[in-house]
Amino acid sequence: MGGVQFSSFYFFQELQQYPHIETQLLLPRHGQFSKLCEKNLIPFLIYNSPTMLSSSVSFFHDLIRIPNPIAWIYNIINIYNNSKRIRNLVKEHRNTVILSKGLYSHFVTTIANRKLSNTLIWHLQDLISSRFGGILLKLMNYFAKLGPNYIVCDGKSIFKSLNSYNQSKATVILNGIKADHFQRTNEDRKSGRKEFNIPKNAYVIGHVGRLTPWKGQVKLVEAFIEYTKQNSTAILFLVGAPTFDSDLYLNKIKNKISKYGLSDKIILTGFRSDLNKMYSIMDLFIYPSIEKDTSPLALIGALSSGLPVTVSSIESLEEIIEIFPEMSLFNPLRRSEIINIFRMFEIEQMRIKVSKSIKSKFKNHFSIKVHTQNMMKAINEA
To answer: I need a labelling partner for 363 at 20 to 30 A (CA). Which of 81, 175, 188, 324 fits?
Structure first.
């Protein structure tokens, strides 16, 4: 599961607090998401979709990407077949609201809902790349003009990627989570550090996120390799797995760690669902995305946990940066700036000051209740 899946789960879970609304969740196949729904008694239907393929082929660890025509043809066929499956389902529910989440779902629901009396809302949670002459962005804007009655964007950068017509029926609503969902505790801190053989007095710099090139973890590793010459008690703690991607990027990171003999100083946990413990282990949370991240749940989780947080100064994180001006910023492509962040937060009092300020503001901006209230306003307006 990635950010779109978790945000969908949190939202749908919160919708259970609205008993006058009849809801139905449609999932493409059985997996972690359906298990989570079963555990939490959330009703869902499976419409049996095959896995979509990546629309491009990556070379040199994502430095170069070229279109994958076979994947495009395969995905277009699947989009059409899925739209027929979805259409048969939504025909049974006239004058209803369809909320689509995930890029391919937007195309599927647009085709499935043609000439039906339902209200279609797109929840855009991915910033579409302008690669390949912006063809995918143009395609998305074309479908956005034809399909949805309303569009919800989870960041200003996504809103700006829409053409003027589509912007006229769009709004920005940031993601949300339960304000008390991720809580750091001394018990989790002790057991977590014991699990990973991290000394009690170690300075742990942490990150949570999918291991993929545009998330920028390799930039942290490169900066940390240099930083260890100055601070022998520091640990870099990277939580995440290459979900939806190959292991090429992960192997690149592992090779760098092995080359410098830092396997005891740079810890890769793999995918973890016990984020309370992961955040509790950390002293500092650093988010080094290089591009296209908008209100990411891993970052929001760190903000809610009471950690001091620092982020890269990319445009797509501007809303979060505006809300929390106490967060220190850095250029993820400048190693010296990342190292300066590492040094700055060595001081415990600095970490306490920043974390208290962040914690005091969180509920007013990123709680799932606020997010759901804003989503309901958008649904009612649509």
So the answer is: 188
